[in-house]
Amino acid sequence: MNIAIGSKNKAKINAAKLALDSAELIHTLFPIDAPSSVSDMPFSDEETMRGAVNRAEYCLLQADVEMAFGLEGGVTETPYGLYLINYGALAEKGKETILSGGARIKLPEIIASKLRNGQVLGNVMEEYCKRENIRSKEGAIGIFTNGLIDRTEMFTHICKLLIGQRQYSQDN
Ligand SMILES: O=P(O)(O)OP(=O)(O)OP(=O)(O)OC[C@H]1O[C@@H](n2cnc3c(O)ncnc32)[C@H](O)[C@@H]1O
Ligand SMILES: [Mg+2]
Fold first, then answer.
1. Which residues line ligand 1 (CB under 6 A)?
2. Is 59:11 a contact under the CB 8 Å cutoff?
3. d(C-alpha 113, C-alpha 71), whole Å
4. Nearest C-alpha neighbor of 102 from the set 156, 44, 59
5. How buried is 24 (Cβ within 10 angstroms: 0-12 exposed, 13-18 middle, 19+ buried)?
6. pLDDT digits (tens, 9 = 90+) for 2-11
7. Taking the C-alpha atoms of 9, 10, 11 and 17 in order, what is their torsion angle to the nearest 10 degrees?
8. Can you give the residue ranges of every domain in the chain?
9. 144 C-alpha vs ligand 1 centroid, how far in Å?
10. CATH: 3.40.50.11550, 2.40.110.10, 3.40.50.1000, 3.90.950.10. Which one for 2-106+149-171?
């Protein structure tokens, strides 16, 4: 099965691969630079969800694939602080797009205040860790969970939620 993933980010590509392998879905995965058509730093559940759906549906229109994943990170304000949030969408020809959320953690105030001032998390994390490309590696979630859950594992979980729901709806 030809499947697209709407990103060239290694953490996202690896996540889709791992989830498809664990579901024993034989596939060729095509990474596509799909626009999220939302802001660089989505600031609500709704905007982050829209980013995930837009990426997945863009891939279906642009590439000769049967289905496509869109994965999107963002943040949202809560009464308990600014939370890192993540969503994934699975679009398939002739079917309703499936959308699921993943793990969420509170960001430290030193990070949150920079985001409220308009910086994007990718840059803030590079500055904070004094290392490049955190977002393609362990991600903010990996840093702040001491490496126990990295960005790939977090997005793998979301991709499994999507594939599992697709299988359920096929069988029922
Ligand atoms: O190439 P793409 O697919 O766009 O991957 P990305 O790393 O930019 O990821 P998103 O666009 O989904 O994330 C939206 C913003 O949040 C940042 N971000 C989200 N999760 C992050 C994480 O775990 N670590 C570092 N930055 C993160 C990211 O840099 C963007 O500015
Ligand atoms: Mg991005």
1. 7-9, 12, 40-41, 72-74, 120-122, 125, 134-135, 139-141, 151
2. no
3. 25
4. 156
5. exposed
6. 999 999 999 9
7. 110
8. 2-106+149-171
9. 15
10. 3.90.950.10
| Ligand in closest contact with the CA of 74 | 1
Taking the C-alpha atoms of residue 67 and residue 146, their distance in angstroms, rounded to an integer, is: 34
| Size of the chain, expressed as the number of residues it contains | 172
Provide the pLDDT confidence category of residue 52 given band limits of 50, 70 and 90.
very high
Query: pLDDT value at position 92?
Result: 97
Tokens 């594939």: give the residue. 163
